[in-house]
Each structure stands twice: as structure tokens, then as C-alpha cells.
Design goal:
single chain; 259 residues; mainly alpha; 11 helices; globular
Length: 259
């Protein structure tokens, strides 16, 4: 119960910070839906429907927009942790009688909650634009679950980077170098079969690919065994990223408090 209270209190801190920046709150929630409308309308006519396997490009790219949003939010999630480290607030936080794990978990809880609101909004806009989720309401729940696993993977990976680098300049340099390739080296906007061979190989080891595949199948095709296999790979990726993030956090904080 003490650990749950710690997680709740720390997560409440993130919510308070977000609510204080109301303009940031509005744009962060609405941005994915805006991307879906403008990017979908602008690119749809240039897409060969035989390549993507459907004549509804908005349905095809819906999962890609969700993944794009998660990557962006993963960077945003790591930034406060980076500032805490550089300003010394992390040292003060670690001097309190709290579990180190509660700091990381509170950020995940906050990110998943915020991410779920964004996804529900972008799905609502997609439904208005004529998209139909073939797997139904239960499929939407599984989409949120896949998004939560991807959120955990990306947030843990960028958080590990935030704790590993010596200063914020290095963090932003590395993030700027890997974030877009991470997205485009996946099936977010292009099917794996349409990629060059080497790019397809890279995409198949990218966790984004499996999250997008699970969500896309649920939207376009409905229920399939490939959804379970994709979720299985995504779960493993989330566990690995979480382990790396936890290791870097423990290395940064040392043995100051109980784990």
C-alpha cells in the first residue's frame, strides 16, 4: 500500500505540471488527431492501394499515427527525468524514504493514461472520417493494450538514455538522430513487403513494427493469430527496455534508498 501511495503521489506531480501548462495540454492531446486529418488527406491520393492492401489509407495509417505519437511522447516523458537529474531534484527525491521503482512506475502510469486519452481522441476522429474498426469495441481495448506496451518500451528506452548521457545536449543530439529513423524503419507508413530488403530486415527487429502490425490488423482485418504473436514480441521488447531503464536508473541513484 505504501508503494501504491508513492506511485500515486509521484504520478499526481506529473499531472499537476501538465495542467499548469494548459496550452501544452491542449496541443499534446489534439495533435495526433490533427496529424491524422491533414497527413491522411494530403497523402492518400498519392498511395498505391495495391501496395498497402486496402483502399482506405486513413485506416492503414491510423496505427502509424498512434506509434508516431508514442515515440514523440516517449521523448517528452524522458525530459522531466533529465531535468530532475541535472537540477539536483533527483538527489533530493532519492533522499526521501521511497522506493526507487516508484519513480519510474509513476512516469509509466502517467504516460499510459495520457496516451490512452490521445488514442481515444484520434480513433474518434478516424471514425468520423469513415474508418471502421473491424475487431469492434474489444479490439479497441486490445489496441490500447498494445499502445501501453509500446509506451512502456519507448519511455523506458528514452529514460535510460536520459540517465546514461552526461548532459541534455547529448540527449537531444542522440534523440534527434534516432527518433525519425526509428519511426520510418518500421511499417508505420509503408508495408514491409514494399521496403528494400535491408530495410525490411531492420524493420523486423523494430518493436514499433509489431505494435503497428497488431493495431493495423485489428483495424483493417479483425481478429487474427498474428495479433497475439505481435503482442508477444512487443511484451518481450517492453520487458527488455524496462530492464535497461531500471538498470540505468539504479546506476544513477546508487543505494540511497530501498528498492
Amino acid at each position: 500500500m505504501h508503494w501504491i501511495q508513492e506511485v500515486s503521489a509521484l504520478a499526481r506531480r506529473w499531472w499537476i505540471e501538465l495542467l499548469r501548462e494548459r496550452l501544452n495540454l491542449v496541443f499534446s492531446i489534439a495533435q495526433p488527431a490533427i496529424w491524422l486529418v491533414f497527413f491522411g488527406a494530403g497523402v492518400e491520393r498519392a498511395i498505391d492501394t495495391r501496395v498497402i492492401g486496402t483502399d482506405d489509407y486513413i485506416s492503414f495509417m491510423l496505427a502509424g499515427i498512434i506509434a508516431f505519437t508514442i515515440v514523440g511522447n516517449g521523448v517528452s516523458a524522458a525530459m522531466p527525468l533529465l531535468w530532475d537529474k541535472e537540477t539536483g531534484y533527483l538527489d533530493r527525491l532519492m533522499s526521501m524514504p521511497i522506493a526507487r521503482s516508484s519513480v519510474i512506475v509513476s512516469r509509466f502510469v502517467f504516460q499510459v493514461a495520457q496516451q490512452s486519452v490521445q488514442i481515444l481522441l484520434v480513433v474518434a476522429v478516424a471514425l468520423v472520417l469513415g474508418v471502421r474498426i473491424e475487431s469492434g469495441p474489444l479490439g479497441l481495448v486490445v489496441i490500447l493494450f498494445a499502445a501501453a506496451l509500446l509506451t512502456m518500451s519507448v519511455t523506458a528506452a528514452f529514460s535510460a538514455l536520459a540517465y546514461a548521457v552526461p548532459q541534455h545536449g547529448t540527449f537531444f543530439a542522440v534523440v534527434g538522430f534516432i527518433s525519425l529513423p526509428l519511426l520510418f524503419m518500421s511499417n508505420a507508413f509503408v508495408p514491409l513487403d514494399a521496403m528494400p530488403g535491408w530495410m525490411s530486415v531492420v524493420a523486423r527487429i523494430n518493436p514499433l513494427t509489431y505494435a503497428i502490425e497488431a493495431m493495423r490488423i485489428l483495424v483493417i482485418e479483425g481478429w487474427s493469430g498474428r495479433v497475439l504473436s505481435s503482442l508477444g514480441v512487443l511484451t518481450i521488447a517492453a520487458a527488455v527496455c524496462l530492464a535497461v531503464g531500471t538498470r540505468e536508473f539504479r546506476r544513477q541513484t546508487g543505494d540511497r534508498v530501498r528498492g
